[in-house]
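ok so heres the complex, two chains, lmk if somethin looks off
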Amino acid sequence: MLETVLKAFLILLYATFVGFMFMGIIRIVTARIHRRVGPPIYQPILDTIKLLSKKSNITHGLIYDFGIIYALGATILALMFIPLGSISILRAYGDLILITFLLEIPMLGIMFAAMSSGNPWAGLGAQRALLTLLAIQVPLGFAIVALAEFYGTFSTYQIVMAQQSMGWSITHLPLLLAAIAYDIVLQAMFGKEPFDIMIAPGEISLGPMVEFGGKHMGILQIQHAIALFAETLFFSNIFLGGAVITAFASPILNTIASLAVLLIKQIAVLMIAIFIGAIFPRFTIDQAARFYWKWPTIIAATGAILAAL
Amino acid sequence: MVDWRLFEPLFEFARKRSLWIVAFCTGCGGIEMPPLMTSRYDLERFGMMPNPAPRMADLFLITGYVTPKTLKRIIITYEMQPDPKYVMAHGSCPLNGGIYWDAYNAIKHLDKYIPVDVYIAGCMPRPEAVMDGIKKIMEMIENGTADGWKRYKENYEYYKKNQDELFGEGWREKEARKWIPWLMDKRREE
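and the predicted structre for the whole thing:
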């Protein structure tokens, strides 16, 4: 029991730290693409410390506080279900639909908080975010169906184990199509550029985030870090083969090696998102909905049909 | 309870190194802001970020002359920011009116209405001068002399008196209700 709690705490600590590093990498790489120097890599940690150390704080009621905590909790729960190399605490229950569902719950928590603040910009951003959330469901669902159809199981851990013998998911054509669709969806889940309609800095003044200041925003930064980690981890687990290293004799070395392999895969997923995000301008919300229901849906549906044949 | 004073040096370092600017471009200085953010004089090196929301901003740049109409918005934006907040006034117009010293419609001393931490002289100041001012404000945050937000709390009567002298008593309510008659007329026309 105590060991499980300790393990969960360590996973959380690792995910938060790596997530913050990912946020720093996003800012540095974007700066380098713009020919800028960019902030140091630990900049998001400083931002979070600063936001948490604000001396005054505003609140708009119970739901405003609760929504933030709810978003953070849902992200942590999602993280616990995803197999992280050989260590994970709830991996026996971590099936695809549950994790996909849990990765979208945080957005609802942020929506609760934003809507209860009464700011019209936050309400507008919430509406856009909910429409984006609705739009990404269709390709996401088809990609999950393709995976489940191909491997005959919903369990993420079994999919990782199957990839050890059959090769990575993206080497099979039907799953490659699903992975492409999922990667386009990831862009909206990260809130990166072509589909950052819900945040839309400059257009609707940060959208749902507009009323969050001080500690609320600090907790949201932590949530964003963990969500980045969890989403990239989920993608590398189901499409890039995860990591089960058994080359070394000692289990600790194996664990460290599998974490390192996973980290490389996660950074690869992140880099694609950054490069796409840095060179594409933002869609309007109606274009984004139409786009998601057209191209990624066609690609993912083709993948699902091919997997079923 | 944890004694948070122990962590104060860490907090001061974080505050110093992650000043988020509220993007409120008044007057000509708005033109001087984009060069600071873009690739030549990259301010993101110091962890600064332009931010459209006042709730998560720390540094308020007043970039140029301030008319009474803008000053109302500036005061409201300033009061929306959470507490360790700093104001930097750009150019000579917020300092003493600049070339608008005899204009009926420009504020001569910004410091009478909101507390300013750092002034930068010049019309317009070069981006290097602005970066010098930012370096100055970072030093001031480190040794605790950037205390405009404390002064605003302690001397609120003084600032409120000056604001009310300029705009008249109850200007916030008046400003909020200003458009209601016009909207009612519009509705009647339809």
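quick notes: The radius of gyration of chain B is 18 Å. thats all i got rn
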